[in-house]
Specification:
Helix content: 10-25%
Distance between the termini: 68 Å
CATH architecture of the largest domain: 3 Solenoid
Structural class: alpha/beta
Shape: globular
Largest sheet: 17 strands, parallel
Number of domains: 2
Low-confidence stretches: 1-10, 12-46
Number of helices: 5
Strand content: 35-45%
CATH topology of the largest domain: Pectate Lyase C-like
């Protein structure tokens, strides 16, 4: 009888363990999406994932990124049906989204490319090696980038000397030195642009720009991830060019000279710009030199007052929430 009772208790214990195991699997499977959204959202390489991160954390976004935003008018220039139809000069426009893979980067672009809000998908090489000082690229969503270069790299262009505006890029960019989600090296003008890319390199590595030697980056932001060895930043890897009205809410991993906004550079060249201590994983006390940009916790990054009130530490000139920005 004792043996039967002992066997019965063992059987009941086994049944309970099985039930608990089933419950654990059920709970994990139904909630893992949320865990992944939080832990992998900042390693995002997709536009929809970035939108979910924005909805969760409610950071500012650029108004032209809203789905209902339209680009009126007829546009001008030759209609682009594939990346191979873009020349090195002249005017080009997209009238529909296109997929570009297995293309050769345009060596130097001195023309104008207007995406008119359409998308370019699947770049496995930068679209341009260099955008020259007379070149302009604007109004394009660049998605599903998957680029690996043995050297400098950028999702749109290895180097920019011209004008880039209203570009949103997502995907993965890998290289060695001077690696950026949007451009590897910038000496031109970048404005109203964003990157949700996952960027990996050795030196001068940033979610938007790898090395910002001169020129300007204004009204731009990142919500992505970056990993490197030295000069690693959530927005820009290194450089002393002008940076104004930007923020980074990107996960940053590096060995030396890593910061939430600009890994290494001139703090005086950066104005009205912020970075998230929560999403970057970096605290001001972790930085041995000058802190570049103003660190904020996510609660402050989600508050419009941070970006418009001159009482905010680090803010001298309020951001434009009438024409350029809106809260996510």
């Amino acid at each position: 009888m004792k043996m039967n009772q002992k066997g019965s208790k063992s059987m009941m214990a086994l049944v309970v363990l099985i039930i608990l195991g089933v419950l654990v699997i059920f709970v994990f499977s139904t909630t893992s999406g949320s865990f992944l959204e939080i832990s992998e959202g900042l390693m995002d390489i997709g536009e929809e994932e970035a939108r979910r991160v924005h909805r969760k954390f409610k950071y500012p976004i650029l108004k032209h990124e809203l789905p209902e935003e339209e680009f009126p008018g007829e546009g001008s220039g030759r209609i682009v049906t594939s990346c191979k139809s873009i020349g090195s000069e002249g005017e080009y426009q997209l009238q529909d989204s296109i997929r570009c893979s297995d293309h050769e980067p345009i060596r130097e672009f001195s023309g104008t490319l207007d995406g008119r809000g359409h998308s370019i998908y699947g770049l496995d090489e930068p679209l341009f090696e260099t955008i020259s000082s007379s070149g302009t690229v604007k109004n394009i969503r660049i998605s599903e980038v998957d680029i690996f270069e043995e050297g400098p790299a950028g999702g749109l262009s290895v180097e920019n000397q011209g004008t880039i505006k209203r570009i949103r890029i997502s995907g993965m960019v890998q290289g060695e030195s001077n690696v950026g989600g949007l451009v590897g090296t910038n000496s031109g003008e970048i404005r109203k642009s964003s990157s949700t890319a996952n960027v990996d390199g050795d030196q001068n590595v940033g979610v938007l720009v790898g090395q910002h030697t001169s020129g300007s980056v204004t009204n731009s932001y990142t919500v992505g991830s970056v990993e490197g060895i030295s000069n690693v930043g959530g927005l820009i890897g290194s450089g002393s060019g002008q940076v104004d009205k930007t923020y980074a809410a990107s996960f940053v991993t590096g060995l030396t000279n890593k910061q939430g906004l600009v890994g290494s550079g001139s703090a005086g060249a950066v104005t009205n710009s912020f970075w998230s201590t929560d999403t970057s994983g970096i605290l001001p006390g972790d930085i041995s030199g000058s802190v570049i940009g103003t660190p904020k916790v996510d609660e402050a990054m989600e508050d419009k007052a941070t970006f418009v009130s001159t009482r905010t530490e680090g803010l001298v000139d309020p951001w434009d929430f009438d024409e350029i920005w809106t809260m996510g």
